[in-house]
Amino acid sequence: MMIKDKYRLFLMALPFLALAFVFCYLPLYGWIYAFYDYRPGIPLAQSEFMGFEWFTSMVSNEVQREEVMRVLRNTFAISTLNILTSVLPVIFAVFLAELRSAKFKKLVQTLTTLPNFISWVLVYSFAFMLFSVNNGFINNLLLDLGWISEPLNILASDDHTWLSMTLWSVWKGLGWGAIMYIAAIMGIDQEIYEAARVDGAGRFRLMWHVTIPGIMPTFFVLLLLSIGNFINNGMEQFYVFQNAMNMHNIEVLDLYVYNIGMTNSNFGFATAVSLLKSLVSLFLLFIANSMSKVIRGESIF
Amino acid sequence: MPVKEKFTMFHFVNYAAFAMITLICVFPFYYLFINTISNNDLSSRGLVMFYPKDIHWTNYADVFRIPGLGQAALISVFRTVLGTVLTVAASAFLGYLFTKQMWGRSFWYRFLVITMYFNAGLIPWYLTMLQLGLTNNFLAYILPAIVQPFFIILVKTFVESTPLALQESAQIDGAGILTIFAKIIFPLITPILATIAIFSAVTQWNSFTDTLFLITDQNLFTLQFILYRYMNEATSIAQLMKQSTGAMVDISNMATPTSIQTTVSMVVVLPILLVYPFFQRFFVKGIMIGAVKG
Which residue ranges does UniProt annotate as crossing the membrane (chain B) (predicted)? Predict the structure, then answer.
């Protein structure tokens, strides 16, 4: 290939690299808003320079400190619950492998993966139909059975908000999360099972000593990735499920940034929070990657 | 698993447990559907629980009389089609370019991959979009979605696994880079492009937050966004439709907040349900390749 060719190739890629620059790198300039009292419509040059005041007020201003602590608590609680429930897809895959009918296995896999492909808005719509206090399915069922005498207002309640958010994530992601483990199990050498069986291992010992070690590497990579994403819960799920009642416990960092920035137009403070969040998240990724290097001998990226 | 093994208590419990889990995953879809075709009055009182009652299909005709829904459906379809075509084309082309000796190849590759793990945050991104004129602009749905590092990795990996000899012989015949891409690479990588297309289409169709952040113009609302709005406003919309219906319609099947919410939900989920059985294997393939290389 001619030397000039490598520049021609670069020029062909350039428009796409420019798009990536505009949408992913250019916004980094916006971090400057974290140091100003910026109001939309007023040019930055005429905005008041705040220095690190937005950052220090997170600690020094008592009201703001409590807000930030509450949001961090929600974020940590929900992320921790998500990490704890990440063993469920493993269990799902291990027991699915024990089903003998290939058709049933396929059916289970197809139908349990489906919820992964609908939006959170639709999940909320389901939640509304099933759990609504006004003639929702669950309330009517429980009333019919005589287990309750008053309809429960499950959606507009702040009891167990962390848990219910986690359960919705599990409902949506369980089947999809299991796919990689199912593939990993199929990749395990059948001779290992044969050998263990000859040695007298029963079903559960095979699971524990052959299947589980076979999928551990996959589990470990995903676990590290979720540690790297510990403070990135996303906001869509929490945005659609939020209401005046559960606000206290549902507001995670991403939703908080949206609520103070976009709803209350406090751009400076919101940018300061999300700047810190980006840095912490980068640090966590770095930790996860180093752990991977030490334990597995290779990086995750 | 051994073939001759008996059907034991373990199997019974295992089958029952998976049947239960599957039922929990599917029941909301079924419940939604039977409520859209049942008597609206019964449905709004929560009396349609396990099977449809007094089946009628008028809700599906009525739903398009809801102001704004037809337009939102057009926007959703349009962004899904255009977004998917452009994302697939860009991923195919860039993935291929990154297998060639491009100037600064490994630098630019990292330049793209980093964006998967790091971003500036919502507010700086929003202000950038605002300054670029991408608020209340249809292009806001399309332009940011075109370059997807993950898809580019998938294509690059796939191209690297195809025999190089094919490209070399075409080069000897005097074919340029674009010709090789169009005539040789493109047909070879269609399986991975199908996977990317389906992922991209589902993401576009389901996208909700970009409308929330960037769009206030009602003509640019998507179905997902309008569904969310309806769930908070269904009562007033039902009122509005009752006024415009006249006396012809059977009173028990007039639009209710429940009928509007369920029917719009069904319209939103239907495309997913229709394509899902045919494309499920592509999803699985996509996540597998991603797992190996991600």
Answer: 12-33, 72-98, 107-126, 138-159, 180-202, 260-279
> Under an 8 A CB cutoff, do A180 and B288 touch?
yes
Q: Please name each of the domains of chain B with its CATH number.
A: 60-293 (1.10.3720.10)
Which residues in chain B have Cβ-Cβ distances shorter than 8 Å to A135?
A: 44-47, 258
What is the H or E stretch that residue B275 is in?
Answer: helix B257-293
Cβ separation B124–A271 shorter than 8 A: yes
Asked if residue B233 has pLDDT above 90, the reply is: no
SS (H, E, C) A84-151: HHHHHHHHHHHHHCCCCCHHHHHHHHHHHHHHHHCCHHHHHHHHHHHHCCCCCHHHHHHHHHCCCCCC
Q: Which residues of B touch A254 (CB under 8 A)?
A: 122
**Interchain contact B133–A (C-beta under 8 A):** no
Does A122 touch chain B if contact means CB atoms closer than 8 Å? yes
Average pLDDT over residues A69-90: 94
Query: Which of A10, A24, A183 lies closest to B119 in CB terms?
Result: A24
Q: Above pLDDT 90, what percent of chain A?
A: 37
Interface probe, candidates B43, B93, B122, B155, chain A, greatest A C-beta count within 10 A = B122
Interval B117-176: pLDDT, tens: 888 889 999 999 999 999 999 999 999 999 999 999 989 988 888 888 878 888 888 778
Q: Which residues contact B277 (CB under 8 A, 6 or more apart)?
A: A110
Measured between CB atoms, does A205 come within 8 Å of chain B? no
pLDDT at B26: 95
Domain count, chain A: 1
Considering only the beta carbons, identify the residue of B44, B127, B146 that sits closest to A33. Answer: B127
Kindly report the CA angle at A196 between A194 and A198, in degrees rounded to 5?
70
Nearest-angstrom CA–CA distance, A126 and A122:
6
pLDDT by residue (tens digit) across A231-268? 888 899 999 998 888 888 999 999 999 999 888 888 88
Residue A62 has pLDDT above 90, yes or no: no
What is the C-alpha to C-alpha distance for residues B28 and B98, in angstroms, rounded to an integer? Answer: 44
- pLDDT confidence of B293, banded at 50, 70, 90? very low
Q: Is the pLDDT of residue B249 over 70?
A: no
Among residues A158, A167, A159, A137, the alpha carbon closest in space to that of A237 is found at A167
Chain A residues with CB-CB distance to B118 below 8 A: 278, 281-282, 285
Of chain A residues 55-74, which have a CB less than 8 A from chain B?
Answer: none
Range of the domain at A280: 33-296
CATH number, domain containing residue A290: 1.10.3720.10
Does residue A38 belong to any structural domain of this protein? yes
Please determine, for residue A209, whether its predicted confidence score (pLDDT) is greater than 50: yes
**Under 8 Å between Cβ of B223 and B272:** no
B121 touches A: beta carbon within 8 Å? yes
Q: Is there a domain that residue A204 lies in?
A: yes
pLDDT score at B4: 56
Q: Is residue A136 in a domain?
A: yes
Domain assignment present for residue A12? The answer is no
Q: What is the ipTM of this complex?
A: 0.89
